[in-house]
Every structure is written in structure tokens, then in C-alpha cells.
Amino acid sequence: MAESVHFGSREVPLAEKQGLVDDVFRSVASRYDLMNDLMSFGLHRAWKSALATAVDPPKRAPFALLEIAGGTGDVAFRLIAAGGEQTRATVCDINAEMLEVGRARAAAAGLGDIVTFTEANAEALPFADRSFDAVTIAFGIRNVPRIEQALAEAHRVLKIGGKFVCLEFSAVDVPGLAGLYDFYSFNVIPALGRVVVGDAHSYRYLVESIRRFPKAAEFAAMMRGVGFARVTHQLMTGGIVALHSGWRL
Ligand SMILES: C[S@@+](CC[C@H](N)C(=O)[O-])C[C@H]1O[C@@H](n2cnc3c(N)ncnc32)[C@H](O)[C@@H]1O
Q1: Among 67, 95, 202, 238, which residue's CB has the most CB atoms within a 10 Å radius?
Q2: pLDDT tens track for 191-208
């Protein structure tokens, strides 16, 4: 029987998941950044700042960053701002529509030569072994059908001594917050999606996919399993988000 994976709360054949995920991001691309602000009350900015602090790009040395599933470039732009003049970012994403929004944002910010946008699948990165000083992925890994394959690719393209940092939704670990968070996620977010993007269905998938993603300790074990060393994680905002780090040594 064909292997199956989660697509939100549904089980779908492994080979079908990516196409369904691509439909979601094609539908939301033009309003993606606005929806992030609305859905998270701007909190995604603080979570992404924590990721930038964990990466800590140097101010005075060359630094090559790969942002996997980087979509509209939001995380890459923050890392460029945190780094020095010699920081360069490559944003890769499987979705041409998300990348197109990112390219336009980069051009408008005068970052066309600093940030490169590449259409690529996280499971098969078109980059040489040991190419990057840091590899990041933010709110992307839960959408990838073969998570371990994507983690192994992130590890492969990191230089020895390079750091991988992953930001992803996790599981709320504060009892009073859990019910409120569920209500907000399953009712308010799809309704916002309907009003702002004209698409409640995609936002229902995004919420359901969060619930299906491995817990933080399990994800840390997956990172160790593909070779990352000194893996650590921290939960933020009562467990709504987890930040995992690991090194290629
Ligand atoms: C929630 S968005 C995150 C975008 C960005 N990192 C941010 O935080 O603003 C998830 C992104 O993952 C991308 N994605 C999904 N599956 C992918 C895959 N197999 N390889 C690369 N990107 C993928 C989607 O196209 C989408 O742009």
C-alpha cells in the first residue's frame, strides 16, 4: 500500500501532499505577510527576531545564509538586517508565487543583489555540500512531506561548524491557554482567511498541520538522527512556537 502522510487532519498518499501544500501557498501568496501580522497579532516578528538572535550573523565577516521554504523572504530580510555588509542570503522555496512576492519585496528594499531567490524543493536542494554558514527554516518544515529528508539536506549543505535553526509551531504547554488557543485557531483564523484572502480552507489546513507536527522533543530527536550535534530547543509564547538549533560538526 502507498505510504501516507498528514495533510492537516487528513491522511493523504505521500506523493499527493506536496501538490496540496502548493495549492495552499499559491492561494495565499499575495496576502501572506499581512495575514501573518493579523493572525499572530504581530507576534511572528518577535519569533523571527529570536531566530535571528540564534543565528547571530557576524557584523564584519562574509556570511552565507540559506533560508529554506523562505517564501516571501521575510526571515531572510531580518537576517540581512541583523548581519554585516558581507551577509548574503539565498531564499529557496518550492512555490513560484511566494518567491515572486519575495523578489518584488527585495527589489523595493534595494536588496536585489543581496538576496537571491531560487525555486527548489527542501527535499532535494540544488546546492553543493558544505556551501552555507547557516541554514534556517521558519514555519516551513511541517509542510514538507519527508521531514527527515529535508533535515538531511539542510545538514548536507551546511559548512562544518555551521548552524541550523528551525522555527515552527509547536504544542501549547500552558493549561489555561490551550483551550483559548484551540478556539482561536479553529474558528477565528479560518474566518480571517475567508475575509482577507477569500480562502478559509487554506487557513484551516495551516491550523490543522500545526496540530499534527511532532512535539519539540521528538523533532529534536529527528535532527539528531540526521547528524546534527548539540541540538537544543526552546519553547516560546507558552509553547505556541519552538525554536530548535543544531550544529554540523
Ligand atoms: C508558512 S510559509 C513560511 C515562509 C517564511 N519562511 C516565513 O516564515 O515567512 C511555508 C513555505 O514553505 C514552502 N514549502 C512547502 N513545501 C516546501 C518544500 N517541499 N520545499 C520548499 N519549500 C516548501 C511553501 O511554499 C511556503 O512558502
Answers
A1: 67
A2: 989 988 888 988 888 888
The H-or-E segment that residue 93 falls in is strand 87-93
Give the number of other Cβ atoms within 10 Å of residue 203's Cβ. 24
The alpha carbon of 67 and the centre of ligand 1 are apart by a number of angstroms equal to 10
What CA–CA distance (Å, rounded) separates 89 from 93? 13
The H or E element that residue 166 is part of is strand 158-169
The model's confidence at residue 1, banded by pLDDT at 50, 70 and 90, is low
Hey, which of 77, 90, 143 would you mutate to test ligand 1's pocket, going by the most ligand atoms within 8 Å of its Cβ? Answer: 143
CA 85/CA 99 separation, integer angstroms: 23
Residue corresponding to grid cell 539536506 = 153
Q: How far apart are CA 94 and CA 191, in angstroms?
A: 27
Give the relative orientation of helices 74-82 and 43-55 as an angle to the nearest 10 degrees: 50
pTM recorded for the entire structure: 0.94
Cell numbers standing for residue 206:
495551516
73 within ligand 1 shell (Cβ under 6 A): no
Nearest CA to 28 out of 231, 243, 192 is that of: 192
Residue with the smallest CA separation from ligand 1 atom 8 is: 138
> Distances in Å between the alpha carbon of 18 and those of 21, 22, 32, 36, 192?
5, 6, 18, 22, 24
Q: Is-contact 178 229, C-beta < 8 A?
A: no
DSSP state of 13: E
- Residue 222 confidence (pLDDT) above 60: yes
- Cβ–ligand 1 distance for 209 under 6 Å, the answer no
